[in-house]
Amino acid sequence: MNIDVLTLFPEMFQGPINESLLKKAQARGLFSLSVTNIRDFTFDKHKTADDTPYGGGSGMVMKIEPIAAVISKIKNKKPACRQAGSKILLMCPTGQPLTQKKVNELAQEKHLVLLCGHYEGVDERVRELVDEEISIGDYVLTGGEIPAMVLIDAVVRQIPGVVKEKESLENDSFYNDLLDYPSYTKPEEFSDEKVPEVLLSGNHAKIAVWRRIQALKETLQNRPELLARAELTREDNKLLEEILKN
Ligand code: 4FV
Hints:
The protein is α/β, with parallel strands linked by helices. It contains 10 helices and 9 strands. Strands 2-1-6-5-7 form a 5-stranded parallel β-sheet. A two-stranded antiparallel sheet has the order 3-4. It starts with a strand and ends with a helix.
């Protein structure tokens, strides 16, 4: 997968993307990332990429010309951009919420272009240049850069081979609309809190049932609305009845 990021603050991407799994995945050629400075597509001597809003009001708005120029350059540079398998995404609070389902969908693409707004946002006409708008949550950030990093992290994890044990992906929260079960590691006891016996039993069938019960309990307590859309098995429903009885 190729990922293009369009931003006025390219240096922000130095840190997060060059650590741990993402760094290894790039080194193994499982995905490539190129960060482009939108200001390099301004043609006035002051390299103006934003301006005051028509109609007045506070703050600055990102101008459409540099954004249109960089998008058309990428479209011309990357033939994939013109075919299926390439998506131009605007990170903004008015976008559709980013969910695991959406992440899994985007992970199938060959090429993603992530446009990061900043200041008060982008000129409204930019929305015609993008395929989709994505929001990482109902709060306002200083820019779309961190949302773009969130999306990159979530999507790249889904690329086959990035996370070694596929199993660990399948046990992720939200993988099947349930929250994750609790995990423990050494020591067996810490300030009188012992690791649940079943996890030390070596009985994998019992451990699997215990973990399923915990995931259902965790979801019921913290995110009951997820249960409504989770694909629960008959076994799950029996376990849920037990949980609700107690
Ligand atoms: C945001 C979000 C977000 C809004 C104004 C950037 C900021 C500034 N992006 N999910 N929440 N963007 O707050 O994606 O331009």
